[in-house]
Amino acid sequence: xxxxxxxxxxxxxxxxxxxxxxxxxxxxxxxxxxxxxxxxxxxxxxxxxxxxxxxxxxxxxxxxxxxxxxxxxxxxxxxxxxxxxxxxxxxxxxxxxxxxxxxxxxxxxxxxxxxxxxxxxxxxxxxxxxxxxxxxxxxxxxxxxxxxxxxxxxxxxxxxxxxxxxxxxxxxxxxxxxxxxxxxxxxxxxxxxxxxxxxxxxxxxxxxxxxxxxxxxxxxxxxxxxxxxxxxxxxxxxxxxxxxxxxxxxxxxxxxxxxxxxxxxxxxxxxxxxxxxxxxxxxxxxxxxxxxxxxxxxxxxxxxxxxxxxxxxxxxxxxxxxxxxxxxxxxxxxxxxxxxxxxxxxxxxxxxxxxxxxxxxxxxxxxxxxxxxxxxxxxxxxxxxxxxxxxxxxxxxxxxxxxxxxxxxxxxxxxxxxxxxxxxxxxxxxxxxxxxxxxxxxxxxxxxxxxxxxxxxxxxxxxxxxxxxxxxxxxxxxxxxxxxxxxxxxxxxxxxxxxxxxxxxxxxxxxxxxxxxxxxxxxxxxxxxxxxxxxxxxxxxxxxxxxxxxxxxxxxxxxxxxxxxxxxxxxxxxxxxxxxxxxxxxxxxxxxxxxxxxxxxxxxxxxxxxxxxxxxxxxxxxxxxxxxxxxxxxxxxxxxxxxxxxxxxxxxxxxxxxxxxxxxxxxxxxxxxxxxxxxxxxxxxxxxxxxxxxxxxxxxxxxxxxxxxxxxxxxxxx
Length: 718
Fold this sequence. Notes:
By secondary structure, the chain is of the alpha+beta class. It is built from 16 helices and 35 strands. An eight-stranded mixed β-sheet has the order 6-5-10-3-2-13-16-15. A hairpin with a 2-residue loop joins β30 (513-522) and β31. α5 (400-409) runs parallel beside α6 (427-436) and α8 runs antiparallel to α9.
């Protein structure tokens, strides 16, 4: 069942949320965010307001406070069930109460309740969080302020206890009754090269001779038609570093917050190695549910999600190495594979797959992703060809934890690479399945960087496995390091690696240093990277490193309100409450006891409208749960027997450089020409010299032939 955010007819009711103001501070690769929600009750009756909004799943929310008539009320983090009880009791006693919680089913959805908002009352609610910023393929650090929260699908057989099930008014984006403002400060000791955004910005102000800091703000009039994305380019991003942060005074010795914490950032210098002769089994899982018919964004001429996903898949198909195995699954309310079993990649099988990819449409109903996943994991392995799973979806599933759990339970036999398609894709699902299965995640919201993202993921899937990963510390006597991050088992070339540790024991004098060493083996050879650092801890009132360390731990243990095992739940509650970082088992609650007016009648309920991008009707019919649909038969009905193998003479082996060259083609050709060029490419990496290729190259066939060496073959490789 798809939950389309409640009421589909407009109701002329005042909305108590008036504005959202965000202050962003980016220092190196960590963002600190303070977001304030400003409420005012303009009605003549007391209200209870509900606001459901998206957050990046990497956000460590550590503070929630209310400002009521000049008085600040700090919220307390409590067990979620206890917080709900206290909230209801406070309202019934005539107090004002404020509740902030992470959704039970997904880490990237939050709900804020404002209880007993009296006529004329103004309240400012401020939440604060910190997060690591991911490193993009082109060296940019990417910060995203999620603004879009699309409808999500409830998986068959699962309860519907998500806050996304609240009835929420749907209004056109241009009619949203509240505003958004963002002010950002960026700083780096290495200097800032440039700042880019997908939204209009005010003029950027750089400070310092070497541009070590900058300030920028979102231009007025943001329409909530896209997530707010900032891309920050530093002069140097690959410098390893260690930051040591002072602990919180007067804290119990067994508490994570008590001792100093270290944040270690490595950029392992992994050499480029030749991939093994056997290349793997590549399985592509394509979302063909109704929501994929929506646009990538609300920008003019925005591509449909299904078309962007198909384009991405075609690029990957054309880039696979000869000799590997592959298969493609389309899924919605039901699913079907292109081939009964994975087939060997050659010209024949590639052409058949491309033909069927082009027939794909977003007409298969709901997002039942668990069923095809279980089928893929239940298939027999191909000896010598490790499974590499590529998932393409807009992530519109309410219960992301159940999907993550299924992927994690099969993590030892595969790697998962996920692609979030379009604005509002669930970061909880997309990042979560990649993290637990040793892969990487990418978000595709437009064509600007699609090719580089897709090919980066493929290159990583082809990389030889880095083994025996370990971290060792050389510290003064009496001082030791306790790892807080999960054990690292996968490292990719060109990837940043961040780990957290707690330093326990006697801290040495200020001038003392320590050393941390990352060791690993690649194709039988041993490698190591070392970093020397100062052991003098820095004071940070926000305890940023401690909070990020707690978040790293919670992402490993917290599998949702329903899915977390009992032993892990105990650890999650302990770390969450001690560190003040919210989890699916805890919630922030603030109570204003100064207001003590008995409630004479039930509070009037006001749900805050939230922006969505769905411009096409979501398919909602009985087949969503039955697992049967005629549409599936229309597009994927025909079973395809494995095509006959082509002759070895036709199967020209490709060098790795042929595939690497794909990464540079979008610097020569525009996006449109690149797609056309790839569509003409053969499985072995070559092109037939004909009029079609000449047109894409913008040349006549005669000129192309004249530019080639004498006695050139009738095909060529770039």
